[in-house]
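Translate structure to sequence.
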């Protein structure tokens, strides 16, 4: 008769003279040499442009992202062994080491991340005493404004940021009884700068000498 085992079958036979003989058939299944992944995931989403035979990827992260995404890998073969993903915050990269079922075959995938800093260096609006400045345009940097005779105080200036990553400061560069010049300097996340200059002059009365 024949009995089956995990990797072999045993055939028991008897010769004509009744002598028993046992034949063992062993099946050798070659181990897979496939060390390629089937997919890489960033925060649960498939890596765009992934191909199993490509091992280095450049990923540009959008403005506002300041941390590396979670990286995960999907085996390309059930017998593969995956090491834990190595996240290197200094190099902004993830490394995935894969070993095939035939462990002498291995692959290394590297995903390099590039952070994108905002270039926005314009304001959305400048306000005078809480009211939108007439004729304000984000790309226009110089404003010369006249105030009527008898104005007792210059307007307080405030603004609406272009985005949340800007740094903004205001300086007074000239101040007299009848004139005021203020500069609002906007620095983007990427260190681009734009300076708005707002100049006020109080009109003189016709009787002023």
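Result:
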């Amino acid at each position: 008769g024949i009995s089956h085992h995990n990797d072999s079958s045993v055939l028991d036979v008897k010769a004509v003279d009744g002598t028993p003989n046992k034949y063992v058939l062993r099946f050798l299944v070659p181990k897979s040499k496939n060390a390629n992944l089937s997919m890489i995931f960033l925060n649960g989403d498939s890596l765009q442009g992934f191909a199993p035979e490509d091992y280095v990827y450049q990923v540009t992260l959008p403005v506002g992202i300041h941390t590396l995404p979670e990286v995960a890998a999907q085996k390309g073969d059930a017998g593969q062994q995956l090491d834990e993903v190595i996240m290197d915050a200094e190099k902004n990269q993830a490394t995935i080491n894969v070993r095939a079922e035939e462990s002498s075959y291995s692959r290394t995938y590297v995903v390099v991340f590039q952070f994108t800093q905002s270039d926005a260096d314009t304001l959305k609006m400048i306000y005078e005493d809480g009211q939108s400045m007439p004729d304000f345009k984000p790309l226009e940097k110089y404003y010369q404004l006249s105030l009527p005779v008898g104005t007792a105080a210059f307007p307080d200036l405030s603004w609406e940021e272009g985005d949340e990553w800007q740094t903004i400061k205001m300086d007074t560069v000239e101040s007299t009884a009848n004139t005021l010049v203020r500069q609002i300097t906007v620095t983007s996340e990427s260190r681009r700068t734009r300076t708005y200059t707002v100049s006020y002059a109080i009109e003189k009365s016709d009787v002023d000498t």
